[in-house]
Each structure stands twice: as C-alpha cells, then as structure tokens.
C-alpha cells in the first residue's frame, strides 16, 4: 500500500524521534532514486508500528517534510492514520515546499476568517489567527472554529476540505 509520512526536515519522526532511512535522491546519472531501507515493527496503533497517512489524513500530521511511503503486511486502518508492520520511504514529495506550506497556511487563515465572519458573536472569544503558527496550527484552528459552529461533523468536513487542498497543491492522487 502506498501512503504518506510527514517527518522533520532531517527525516526524524516528529513523535517517535525515530530517524528514518531516507531514499536515495535522483541524480543526473540515476534517473530514479532508490527507496530507503525497510523498517519493521510490531503493530500496536499509537504505540508501535509503521504509522502513515492516507490523503484524507494529511492535515492531521503536517510537518516540514513529506514522503511517500510503501507499507507492507496487514495494514490496520484507524480513523486518522494507517499502521503496518513494515514500511519504507520511497520518495520525498518535493512539492511540499515553502511555497505550498505558505499557500496552505494562507488558505487556512482565510477559511478561519470566513468562519469568524459567519458567526462573530459565537467566535468573539477566539483570538484572531495569524500566520506565525504555521500550516499545522492554522489548519487546526480553522477546523476547531468549524467544530465550534457545527459540531464534530463540521470539524471532519473542514479537515476533508484541507485534505482536498493538499491533494491539489501537491498533485497527489
């Protein structure tokens, strides 16, 4: 199964602190990079295993670097992630760059503004979001504002909107 994995810029897991074996980069002499080495772990969601994202899960896990990951074995589907016993990074998604992060942040900030304008009395206590929080925080704020106005379903709908933005921005299927 092909999925996605957000990591720190150096290839370290944001939560696990595990340093992933990175894929070889494409060079002038090598047309296609080689995947990183396989990593294996017992599956226990939120505790161990190879955790990854489907397209719909991307907004929940935003970090500086995004990789396509190949999962192997029995993949466990969780509400906002998938977990497998085996995985390897295939390639870095280079489209997740400063320009894409800025655009996603801009869209999230604009969406938070739309939500605030739609019900100023209900969201009056919320501080105005600003770009200093970065894309992960701005997406979360917009989703929480939607939840404040329409409940958990609205939160999930907002995260779905953000997933569509990311798929479009990064040209992911």
Structural notes for this entry:
- With 173 residues, the chain is an alpha+beta fold.
- Helices cover 33% and strands 19% of the residues.
- The chain has a four-stranded antiparallel β-sheet, with no helix packed on it. Strands 3-6-5 form a three-stranded antiparallel β-sheet, with no helix packed on it.
- β5 (76-78) and β6 (81-84) form a beta hairpin.
- The relative contact order is 0.16.
- The model has no long low-confidence stretch (mean pLDDT 92).
Secondary-structure blueprint of this entry?
Layout: E1 2-7, E2 39-40, E3 50-52, E4 65-72, E5 76-78, E6 81-84, E7 86-92, H1 98-118, H2 134-150, H3 152-170
Helix pairs in contact: 1-2, 1-3, 2-3
Radius of gyration: 17 Å
Instruction: Give the DSSP E fraction (strand runs of 2 or more residues).
Output: 15-25%
Determine the fraction of residues in helical runs and give it as a percent range.
Answer: 25-40%
Q: What is the overall shape?
A: globular
State the domain count: 2
């Amino acid at each position: 199964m092909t999925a996605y994995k957000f990591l720190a810029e150096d290839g370290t897991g944001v939560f696990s602190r595990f340093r992933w074996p990175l894929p070889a980069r494409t060079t002038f002499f090598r047309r296609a990079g080689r995947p990183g080495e396989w990593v294996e772990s017992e599956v226990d969601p939120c505790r161990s295993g190879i955790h990854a994202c489907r397209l719909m899960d991307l907004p929940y896990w935003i970090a500086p670097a995004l990789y396509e990951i190949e999962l192997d074995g029995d993949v466990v589907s969780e509400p906002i992630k998938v977990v497998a016993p085996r995985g390897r990074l295939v390639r870095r998604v280079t489209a997740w760059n400063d320009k894409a992060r800025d655009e996603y942040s801009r869209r999230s900030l604009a969406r938070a503004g739309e939500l605030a304008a739609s019900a100023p009395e209900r969201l009056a206590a919320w501080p105005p979001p600003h770009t200093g929080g970065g894309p992960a925080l701005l997406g979360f704020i917009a989703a929480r504002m939607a939840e404040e106005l329409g409940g958990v379903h609205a939160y999930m709908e907002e995260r779905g909107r953000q997933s569509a933005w990311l798929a479009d921005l990064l040209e992911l299927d």
